[in-house]
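Annex B. Sample input.
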Amino acid sequence: MTEQQALYKYCLILGDNALIHSYRLSEWCSNAPILEEDLALTNFSLDMIGRAQALLSYAGKIDGKGKTDDDLAYRRGEREFYNHLLKEMPNGDFANTIAKLLFTSAYEYYFFNELQHSADKTLAAIAAKTIKEVKYHMAHATDWVLRLGDGTDESHHRIQKAVNELWMYTGELFETNEATAILEDKNIAVDMAVVKAKWKQEIERVLTEATLTVPKDQYMQTGGSKGVHSEYLGHILSEMQYLQRAYPEAIW
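Annex B, continued. Sample output.
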């Protein structure tokens, strides 16, 4: 794998994570439990769409084959997506979405803090913009985890159940591959060991304060960064890509 190929794959992973998580959050539009959350989750989704557009546009330029961000979002098959499995999991109830948002936003906060020092100026610029957004995402998710965990018996049960069920997908967040190994040597990619240590410390702090039990690290479900996904990604793409595939030459 060349450095160019590694950077292309790296940008796809980051862009796909933002795109698929954005899609999931957008499903809360008009369905959230209160109006404030309807607006908040939809705005988080828009933040991620902007990030996905920037990363996939950059990936297209790196690839050098004339692909746009739209091409990469709407004209790739399931095995050509490299997002983490956590992002494609169904929303479930509100507690489930909040647990996913906490795990993801805390990871992104520490990841993009590191990436803004990347030797790649474009990635560093995207990271610098992103960190302002994910800082608020993490604060919002943290506030809700504390409220649910230290709330009623029912809210405590639901958020603990969500944390327990999603924990098996968190190990994949910190996996490395051939692309990251190549880019780390060039000071482009992030050292995932640093991100993992900070993430784990923060998650343990929040869960403990919320009177929740931190799950033990046991079996971790992985495969997303290799293009191996759950059935849920196929359902997402069948909806998200339908119009583009039905009318490939359509313009607005």
